[in-house]
Write a structure and sequence with these properties.
Elements lengths: L2 H35 L6 H41 L5 H10 L5 H25 L8
Protein backbone atom coordinates (compact mmCIF):
# COMPACT_ATOMS: atom_id res chain seq x y z
CA UNK A 1 0.00 0.00 0.00
CA UNK A 2 1.09 3.54 -0.58
CA UNK A 3 1.57 6.05 2.21
CA UNK A 4 -1.57 7.93 1.15
CA UNK A 5 -3.64 4.74 1.32
CA UNK A 6 -2.20 3.84 4.72
CA UNK A 7 -2.86 7.31 6.12
CA UNK A 8 -6.40 7.22 4.75
CA UNK A 9 -6.99 3.80 6.28
CA UNK A 10 -5.54 4.94 9.60
CA UNK A 11 -7.70 8.09 9.57
CA UNK A 12 -10.85 6.11 8.78
CA UNK A 13 -10.22 3.61 11.60
CA UNK A 14 -9.36 6.39 14.04
CA UNK A 15 -12.54 8.30 13.20
CA UNK A 16 -14.72 5.17 13.41
CA UNK A 17 -13.14 4.25 16.73
CA UNK A 18 -13.93 7.70 18.11
CA UNK A 19 -17.55 7.40 16.91
CA UNK A 20 -17.98 4.11 18.78
CA UNK A 21 -16.42 5.56 21.94
CA UNK A 22 -18.77 8.55 21.85
CA UNK A 23 -21.74 6.23 21.37
CA UNK A 24 -20.68 4.09 24.34
CA UNK A 25 -20.24 7.12 26.60
CA UNK A 26 -23.69 8.37 25.56
CA UNK A 27 -25.21 5.02 26.43
CA UNK A 28 -23.45 5.08 29.80
CA UNK A 29 -24.88 8.51 30.62
CA UNK A 30 -28.34 7.39 29.53
CA UNK A 31 -28.17 4.30 31.75
CA UNK A 32 -26.96 6.34 34.74
CA UNK A 33 -29.69 8.96 34.27
CA UNK A 34 -32.32 6.23 33.93
CA UNK A 35 -31.03 4.53 37.08
CA UNK A 36 -31.10 7.79 39.03
CA UNK A 37 -34.49 9.02 37.85
CA UNK A 38 -36.08 5.59 38.09
CA UNK A 39 -34.36 4.52 41.29
CA UNK A 40 -37.67 4.37 43.21
CA UNK A 41 -38.85 1.66 40.83
CA UNK A 42 -35.65 -0.35 40.51
CA UNK A 43 -35.95 -3.99 41.46
CA UNK A 44 -33.26 -6.64 41.47
CA UNK A 45 -34.62 -8.35 38.32
CA UNK A 46 -34.78 -4.99 36.51
CA UNK A 47 -31.22 -4.14 37.55
CA UNK A 48 -30.09 -7.55 36.32
CA UNK A 49 -31.74 -6.97 32.94
CA UNK A 50 -30.21 -3.48 32.63
CA UNK A 51 -26.74 -4.74 33.50
CA UNK A 52 -26.99 -7.73 31.13
CA UNK A 53 -28.20 -5.58 28.22
CA UNK A 54 -25.57 -2.93 28.97
CA UNK A 55 -22.87 -5.60 29.09
CA UNK A 56 -23.93 -7.11 25.74
CA UNK A 57 -23.94 -3.65 24.17
CA UNK A 58 -20.44 -3.00 25.45
CA UNK A 59 -19.25 -6.42 24.35
CA UNK A 60 -20.39 -5.98 20.76
CA UNK A 61 -19.13 -2.40 20.62
CA UNK A 62 -15.84 -3.65 22.07
CA UNK A 63 -15.59 -6.08 19.17
CA UNK A 64 -15.88 -3.13 16.78
CA UNK A 65 -13.32 -1.17 18.75
CA UNK A 66 -10.95 -4.12 18.56
CA UNK A 67 -11.28 -4.31 14.78
CA UNK A 68 -10.56 -0.61 14.40
CA UNK A 69 -7.54 -0.84 16.70
CA UNK A 70 -6.27 -3.80 14.63
CA UNK A 71 -6.62 -1.75 11.43
CA UNK A 72 -4.73 1.12 13.05
CA UNK A 73 -1.99 -1.22 14.30
CA UNK A 74 -1.58 -2.79 10.86
CA UNK A 75 -1.38 0.67 9.29
CA UNK A 76 1.29 1.68 11.79
CA UNK A 77 3.30 -1.48 10.98
CA UNK A 78 3.17 -0.65 7.28
CA UNK A 79 4.15 2.96 7.98
CA UNK A 80 7.19 1.66 9.91
CA UNK A 81 8.27 -0.33 6.85
CA UNK A 82 7.98 2.80 4.73
CA UNK A 83 9.99 4.76 7.32
CA UNK A 84 12.77 2.16 7.30
CA UNK A 85 12.94 2.31 3.51
CA UNK A 86 13.07 6.13 3.59
CA UNK A 87 9.77 6.57 1.75
CA UNK A 88 7.73 8.21 4.50
CA UNK A 89 6.82 11.90 4.39
CA UNK A 90 6.84 14.23 7.38
CA UNK A 91 3.09 13.79 7.80
CA UNK A 92 3.51 10.02 7.90
CA UNK A 93 6.33 10.36 10.42
CA UNK A 94 4.18 12.60 12.64
CA UNK A 95 1.28 10.13 12.54
CA UNK A 96 3.66 7.27 13.27
CA UNK A 97 5.28 9.03 16.25
CA UNK A 98 1.92 10.03 17.68
CA UNK A 99 0.46 6.53 17.34
CA UNK A 100 3.44 5.02 19.16
CA UNK A 101 3.03 7.34 22.15
CA UNK A 102 0.53 4.97 23.75
CA UNK A 103 -2.99 5.44 24.98
CA UNK A 104 -5.07 5.01 28.09
CA UNK A 105 -8.16 4.19 26.04
CA UNK A 106 -8.43 0.61 27.24
CA UNK A 107 -8.29 1.68 30.87
CA UNK A 108 -11.00 4.30 30.37
CA UNK A 109 -13.10 1.73 28.50
CA UNK A 110 -13.26 -0.56 31.52
CA UNK A 111 -13.48 2.27 34.07
CA UNK A 112 -16.55 3.69 32.34
CA UNK A 113 -18.12 0.24 32.23
CA UNK A 114 -17.56 -0.53 35.90
CA UNK A 115 -18.39 2.96 37.20
CA UNK A 116 -21.74 2.70 35.39
CA UNK A 117 -22.34 -0.71 36.97
CA UNK A 118 -21.47 0.76 40.34
CA UNK A 119 -23.78 3.72 39.89
CA UNK A 120 -26.73 1.49 38.96
CA UNK A 121 -26.16 -0.65 42.03
CA UNK A 122 -25.59 2.43 44.19
CA UNK A 123 -28.94 3.93 43.10
CA UNK A 124 -30.70 0.68 43.97
CA UNK A 125 -29.05 0.31 47.38
CA UNK A 126 -29.34 4.02 48.25
CA UNK A 127 -33.09 4.10 47.66
CA UNK A 128 -33.70 0.82 49.48
CA UNK A 129 -31.68 1.96 52.50
CA UNK A 130 -33.04 5.51 52.70
CA UNK A 131 -36.74 4.80 52.63
CA UNK A 132 -37.50 5.69 49.00
CA UNK A 133 -35.65 9.02 49.06
CA UNK A 134 -34.13 9.97 45.72
CA UNK A 135 -30.98 11.95 46.49
CA UNK A 136 -27.30 11.33 46.01
CA UNK A 137 -25.20 11.47 49.15
Amino acid sequence: MTEAELLSQFGYASSALWDVVQWLVSISFAVMIAAYLGSKRLTLPLISIIIIMYTFTWYFAGESLGRYVDIMDASVQELRFLLESGQLSLIGIAILERSEAGSLGGIFYFLTLFFTYGFIIYCYINVKNSGQKQTLK
